[in-house]
Amino acid sequence: MSRRRPRRVFLAGLALLLAAAGPAPESGGAEVRTADYVFSYRWPAAVEAVPDLRSRLMKDQEAIRRAFAEEAGQARQAAAADPGRPFLPYELSVEWKVAADLPAWLSLSQSLSVFEGGAHPNTGFDSLVWDRRAGVERPPLDLFTSPEALDAAIRAPFCDALDRASGDGFDACIRPSGQAVVLGSSDRKRFTRIGILVAPYAAGPYVEGSYDVTVPVTPAVLQAVKPEFRAAFGP
Fold first, then answer.
1. Rounded CA gap, 162 and 174, in Å?
2. Which of these, 99, 124, 97, lies nearest to 43 by C-alpha position?
3. Bridge partner list, 39
4. By mean pLDDT, which of 106-115, 171-180, 190-199 is the weakest?
5. Distances (CA, A) of 178 to 12, 140, 199, 221
6. Were 153 and a residue from 65, 141, 147, 224 both cysteine, which residue would form a disulfide, CB within 3.0 to 4.6 Å?
7. Collapsing DSSP states into helix, strand and coil, what is residue 80?
8. Rounded distance between C-alpha atoms, residue 93 and residue 126, angstroms
9. How many CB atoms lie under 10 A from the CB of residue 54?
10. Which CA distances in Å does 140 have to 22, 169, 207, 212?
11. What angle do CA 22, 107, 50 make, to 5 degrees?
């Protein structure tokens, strides 16, 4: 009995703290299921606090859903006209996650999975940063002087990490800027690291899957950042 009592006190105290804090913000998005397709599009709670960004993702969600619904409907009609061609409902999942939540910036990464009746689903990635001070969305590469400058600054550590992760000793490395570039942070004050999300097929066969490579922000990276954004980055 003496061992259980402190646990009950702790849980009661935790419940009071949670009640005082109020309900946690909820994530946003939608899920739609029909005979033709299953569609899911989600974003984190941090987006709900940025009305303009939320509106942008809502428009993206609806545009993608409409196009996907039309494509899935056409595929069902084609299968109905061919008795030897079975139809499996299409599936599309889009999820945005917080990569860095800074005072002046919100960095998001996106993962996408789509199944359109093939041998397996396909995967893709995307990213964005929201400039809180300017109230605008900026593609991560827009914060650098050029994609080539970023490539030159991170190519060596990126290729070394990708080579180790792949385990096949591939020789031809891919361009980091050609993948999804995600700005991350270890101190929640500045961008201190850069993530590169590599989709299947980009660096090897599908069976190898995707890769997530992270490199630090170094003096070389800082030199590749546009002067007006340099204060947002740090080693």
1. 9
2. 97
3. 32, 92
4. 171-180
5. 51, 12, 11, 17
6. 224
7. helix
8. 13
9. 15
10. 34, 29, 29, 16
11. 50
Euclidean distance between CA atoms 189 and 184, whole angstroms: 10
* Residues β-bridged to residue 34: none
Separation in Å, CA 179 to CA 12, 35, 47, 52, 98: 48, 34, 23, 26, 18
Q: How far apart are the first and last CA of the chain?
A: 52
User: Distance between CA 55 and CA 167 in Å, rounded?
Assistant: 42
Q: Tell me the three state secondary structure of residue 164.
A: helix
Structure tokens at 40: 């899911």
- Average pLDDT in the chain: 86
What residue type is assigned to position 125 of the chain?
Answer: F
Locus of tokens 């499996």: 88
The residue with tokens 């599009």 is 41
pTM recorded for the entire structure: 0.83
154 token code pair = 């991170």
For 68-115, write each residue's pLDDT tens digit: 999 999 999 999 998 878 899 999 999 999 999 999 999 999 999 999
Backbone angles phi, psi at 131, to 5 degrees: -85, 105
Token pair recorded at residue 185 = 């942070």
